[in-house]
Specification:
single chain, mainly alpha, 1 helix, 94% helix, rod-shaped
Length: 32
């Protein structure tokens, strides 16, 4: 059960990180 939760949390973190990088790239495009 604990290992399953760890995998779930790591997947969520990766998706959040991907979302942040996408937002940052959009912001950079707007600045130019």
């Amino acid at each position: 059960m604990n290992a399953y939760l760890c995998k779930k949390m790591s997947k969520q973190r990766l998706s959040v990180h991907a979302d942040l990088s996408i937002i940052k790239s959009h912001l950079r495009k707007d600045e130019k």
